[in-house]
Design a protein that fits this description.
210 residues; 10% helix; six-stranded antiparallel sheet; seven-stranded mixed sheet; mainly beta; 15 strands
Amino acid sequence: MTTSKNSDKQYTQFAFDLNTNPFFKKDYKNFINILGAEQLNSLQQTSLLDIFLSENSIIEPHYHQNAAELTYCISGSANVSLLNPNTKELQSFSITAGQVVNVPRGWWHFQIATSDNTHLLGIFDAPTPEVILASDILTLTPSTVFSYSYCLNDNVWKNATASIKSGMLIGPPNDCNKTYMTPQNNLNTIPPNDYPPYRSQQPYQGYERS
């Protein structure tokens, strides 16, 4: 690692190995490494998540309260979906190697790998990305709040969410029956009245590469 000394006799770091700093690991095919100012103190308003996913794995719905995210596909392919809070429209972008999707700060979003060995890079405009996960919201909010808000049977809600664990991050769980979870048949088969408007588009429509 290359370093230099400043006037305060503290080391300034200019290089770091992400492989030594895991952020989350589901299994050997699905894991995330992190780099921020805590790991590389020469960074200022930049941080990143190095994301590895197997086919049909999902980064659960979440939002970053302190940063926008640029999702860059290094290899493989993924659908990146984001909920526009202004139009209430859920948009999905299919990306492959070399393509990106920009997720503004505070926007609800999720990523689904559509091929095996997918490698994504999440780049943030903050020293360390903060995150609020759907699993955190569902598990940390008392069940009575949801059942009262939506006039639901509290036991039914508890049973439906019993297997959700806080901080799941990469899903679905290994013991899940994934036949109904795959990108090929999950979102597009949900009736429009039961799901927000869903529009699939390519991020580079109208652009011809030479």
